[in-house]
Amino acid sequence: MDRNFQDLLKRYNEGRVSPEEKKQVESWYLALGEKPKVINQDALLTQLEDGKQELQQLYRQNRVAPIWRRAVAVAAVLLVALGFYLTRGTDQESDLPLVSIDSIQPGEENAIFSMENGEALDLRTMVVGTKLNQGGVEIVKLATGGIQINQTGTATVQSSTIKTPRGGEFEVTLPDGSLVKLNADSELKLLAGYNKDNRRIDLSGEAFFDVQKSTKPFIVSTANQKVTVLGTQFNIKAYASEAETTTKLLRGSVKVSNNTSGKEVLMKPGDQVINRGDELLVSSKEKQQVDWVDKEFVFNEKTAEELMNDIARWYNLEVEFENEDLKNKRFTGSIARYSEFTKVIAVLEATEVLKFQLEGRKILVK
Questions:
Q1: Distance CA 132, CA 126 (A)
Q2: Domain 108-284 has what CATH class?
């Protein structure tokens, strides 16, 4: 790292840097409150090392949630230098196209609405107030950025799908008034006849549900379980790439059924059910938190693999671990979901457990 950084500073002082490299160095230099004439690389390297040590000391003193918020403030002075390291790599040049670390942004509202006949609608580009009729429903773009789906007359609701990409999220109000928040890389399918005798949907990925009370059961099916409710608030995380499906209940009651074993659990508020293989594992706390809905990443003894999967989906990155053992390292803390990517990485690197190298949109965990 230091060799790369020293080389950058040397080339800057000699006038042999690209416009992007010049901007990176001067942005960091200005963050130190000085004018960029000739940059003293020894002084800057000292600032960099001091910043790292302060972050590491904060992490050693307290590994609970407040550390992450405090560390982010300390990390700010390191961001440009860190961005250079991640973009250029540590030991050698990469043949992959370079991606500026500053260009990696948190997710935004983005989804595609599609019908079984192949018609598709980019919900991000819809203008607020626009109304479109599709498959027995009216789609209205709301000022909040989401959509409301209204049933039109007595027509039967046709099957439709709402899909968010990596780096996307979206909010949907269903024909019965129930609210669904879709996390990144998730798909929600309304089955034909929704809200006639029942309210059936399929889910792949993660979604938070605030279900309106009704005599018609609200049924969410994933690859390995079924959740049945009448009116409640709950979250389901069911990504195909992960071995477990997790259900958290905030309000009301839900019944979770394992598709393999047929086992069932009746959940009460504060319960969490992990569906693993043919088992349903129940844990309880006074109040469950759905971190992504609260606009946070919360790591309660979460493994590095889980943590990096969540981050990668939100920032639209691919993740690769250099060593399989790193996947099982555990972390506790929290950080704002809409933080700049550089801040997230700076805080994680301060633990001295993980190091990162960015190549294109792939991040290597070392």
A1: 10
A2: mainly beta
